[in-house]
Amino acid sequence: MRSTGGWPDHFSTAASGYARYRPRYPASLFDALAAHAPARGLAWDCATGTGQAAGELAARFGVVMATDASARQIFHAQRARNTRYVVATAELVPLASGRADLITVAQAAHWLDLDAFYDEARRVARADGVLALWTYDLCSVSPSLDRELGRFYRDVVGPYWPPERAHVETLYRDLPFPFDELKVAPVAIEGRWSRSDLLGYVATWSAVKRYREASGEDPVGTWLAPRLERHWPRGEERPIRWPLGVRVGRVRRLSTRRER
C-alpha cells in the first residue's frame, strides 16, 4: 500500500475536463446506499474529485463532507447548499469521530493507501455506518466503436496506465475490503453521448495524460478521433454504458483508535 502523503496526482491538470466529461452515477445506487445507512445525517464523500457523487448524496443526506487531496478538483466541483468541500487526504479528514452515516469513494479507492484510509473510515463512521466503494471500467457504445476504443485503451495508451488500474479492470473484486459486506443490486452507468462527449471523457484518462507528457503528442486527437469519425457522425448521440463494480460494507468502529 502507498504511504500517506504520497498520493498520485493524475487528475489536477484535467480538473475542468473531469467536471465536464466524467459520467454521472445512477440515482438507484445512491438510493440503495441511503437505505443501508443507519441514518441520513452526514455522508463523507472521500476523494470526491469534482463532486459527481457528492451532488447525489446532498439530495439524500442532511450534510455532505466532500474531500479531495487536489485543490484544483475541489475548485471545479459542483456546489450544493448542504455540501462542504475541503482539501484533505483520505487518511486524515477534519471530521469528529463517530459522525458519518455513510462513507463513499467513487472511482478512486485504487489510488488510496487503503490500510490508512480504512482506519480513518472506522474512526469517522458512526455505529453500524456504511462504507461504499465503486468503480467503472471501459464503456461500451457499439461493436465497431468498442473495438476501436479497446485498441486505443490497450495498444496505444496501455503502457501508460498506472499499475493501480488493474483493480478497475476487475471492478474491485480483488480489492482488499475487510468489512461485513452488504448486497446491492447490480447497477450500471447509462446515458446518451455524442462523439465529442466520448473524446472529451477519454482525454481525462490518467494514461492519456502520461502519454502526452512522455511524447508531447495528443493520442486522442491523432489516433482515436479519426477512427471514431468513421463510425460516428458528428452531433449524433448514441447510448453508452459502463459496468459498475460496487463494494458495500458495514463498518465496525475500532475502540482503540485515537479519537479527535
Q: Which characteristics define this entry?
A:
eight-stranded mixed beta sheet; 260 residues; alpha/beta; disordered N terminus; 8 strands; single chain
Q: What would your notes on this structure say?
A:
- Strands 1, 2, 3, 4, 5, 6, 7 and 8 form an 8-stranded mixed β-sheet that branches.
- α1 runs antiparallel to α8 (195-202) and α6 (143-156) runs antiparallel to α10 (219-229).
- Residues 1-7 have low confidence and may be disordered.
- The protein has 10 helices and 8 strands.
- It has 260 residues and is of the alpha/beta class.
Tally of individual helices: 10
Termini, distance in Å? 25 Å
What number is the mean pLDDT? Answer: 91
Number of strands: 8
Low-confidence stretches: 1-7
The helix fraction, in percent, is: 25-40%
The biggest beta sheet, please? 8 strands, mixed
Name the beta content range. Answer: 15-25%
The gross shape turns out to be elongated
What order do the helices and strands follow? HHEHEHEEHEHHEEHHHE
Question: How do the helices and strands line up, and which of them pair or pack?
Answer:
Layout: H1 15-21, H2 27-36, E1 42-46, H3 52-58, E2 63-68, H4 71-75, E3 83-87, E4 100-106, H5 114-124, E5 125-136, H6 143-156, H7 165-169, E6 180-181, E7 188-193, H8 195-202, H9 206-215, H10 219-229, E8 238-250
Parallel strand pairs: 1-2, 1-4, 2-3, 4-5
Antiparallel strand pairs: 5-8, 6-8, 7-8
Helix pairs in contact: 1-8, 6-10
